[in-house]
Write a structure and sequence with these properties.
alpha/beta; Dehydroquinate synthase-like, alpha domain; 8-stranded mixed β-sheet; 13 strands; binds glycine
């Protein structure tokens, strides 16, 4: 996997044969989106999907850029928030895309965070049996994770992301400046996914983050480097396991515990995704110590780094009452990473040394969680 830098733009290729595409990362890219899309999809019209919050901040810039590149466009503006990843909103966007006479060669353009990207990608994946798709992620989490790799979908009453398709974008445009409009809380939550790439298999990146995280928060070259390193790491994993039959599961480090905490807090603003997986990643390291897979020093480093950044690291920081160890285990068992009754976790031998552990005994998880609940 290679990447190159043209002017201030970093290009990270995602190598997937005929479905390969580039992630472009840099300052001021939203204002250039029209011509960047034109280069990749010369004749496509653009069915933009965004949410009301992002529309207020960024839709005018995107529209001006599309107009100056001669790209015909219209926009579907959905309500902000996870509840838009639903059949009714999906149907509404599908109606608008088909009603707008967009064809298979035209592009659905997602301007927003993970919710907009996941919903729009699903629309692009199924309308007319698959339209072109461009991601313009506006949250840190979407720039380093959800906009890359082709997972799309909506939530149903049985759980999150249970209906969807793999549908790779044709282009991802990550404008690092738009992140300045995020609240510090949401930037920090996205940062948990950045740190995850160091913890998975890049100890050097984690060490760099320990020294440079404040510069990443401030913006500029350090932020671009962190996003590009994260995207390069994700691109490499997706290129070798697009459909998550193996290594792609490593991207779920911290997510098994984290999803249980999100479920326990009703997927609400009490605990946003990045905060849940920050606690989840600390627990995954502590659980690895508990299972004698590693010594305690790296687990302490992970906890200290997240504490320094201001991310939650302990169960007693989750607002409201949490279920006991049995209840948390039941939530974990409902998670999609349970294969035929056995628990699959991403565990680790140390920072940058994570691995997929199958057949993890539920009793060991329960004993660990009981101790973790007592410690807080
Ligand atoms: N967010 C995890 C993945 O893309 O596989």
């Amino acid at each position: 996997m290679t990447s190159d830098q043209t002017g201030d733009v970093v290009r990270v290729p995602v190598a997937l044969g005929e479905r390969s595409y580039d992630i472009l990362i840099g300052s001021g890219l939203l204002a250039r989106a029209g011509s960047l899309i034109r280069e990749v999809l010369p004749k496509a019209k653009a069915a933009v999907v965004t949410d009301a919050t992002v529309a207020d901040l960024h839709l005018a810039t995107l529209n001006a850029s599309l107009a100056s590149a001669g790209v015909e466009t219209s926009a579907s503006v959905i309500p902000p928030g996870e509840s838009s990843k639903s059949f009714p909103v999906f149907e509404q966007v599908v109606d608008q895309v088909i009603g707008g006479r967009y064809e298979r060669g035209d592009a659905v353009v997602a301007l927003g965070g993970g919710v907009v990207g996941d919903l729009s990608g699903f629309v692009a994946g199924v309308v007319r049996r698959g339209m072109r798709f461009v991601q313009i992620p506006t949250s840190l989490l979407a720039q380093v994770d959800s906009s890359v790799g082709g997972k799309t979908g909506i939530n149903v009453s049985h759980g999150k992301n249970l209906v969807g398709v793999f549908h790779q974008p044709d282009l991802v445009i990550a404008d690092t400046d738009v992140l300045d409009t995020l609240s510090e809380r949401h930037f920090r939550a996205g940062y948990a996914e950045v740190a995850k790439y160091g913890l998975i298999d890049d100890a050097g990146f984690f060490t760099w983050l320990e020294a440079n995280w404040q510069a990443v928060f401030a913006g500029g070259a350090a932020r671009t480097h962190a996003i590009a390193t994260s995207c390069r790491s994700k691109a490499a994993i997706v290129a070798r396991d697009e459909r998550e039959t193996g290594d792609r599961a490593l991207l779920n480090l911290g997510h098994t515990f984290g999803h249980a905490l999100e479920a326990a807090t009703g997927y609400s603003d009490k605990l946003v995704h990045g905060e849940a997986i920050a606690i989840g990643m600390v627990l995954a390291h502590d659980f690895s110590v508990h299972m004698n897979l590693m010594g305690p020093d790296d687990a302490t480093r992970v906890r200290r780094h997240f504490e320094a950044v201001g991310l939650p690291t302990r169960l007693d920081q989750v607002p409201g009452d949490l279920p006991d160890a049995d209840g948390l285990l039941a939530l974990i068992a409902q998670d999609k990473k349970v294969v035929r009754g056995t628990l699959t976790f991403i565990l680790t031998h140390g920072i940058g040394q994570s691995f997929i552990a199958k057949d993890v005994p539920g009793e060991a998880v329960k004993g660990f969680l009981a101790g973790a609940s007592e410690r807080g």
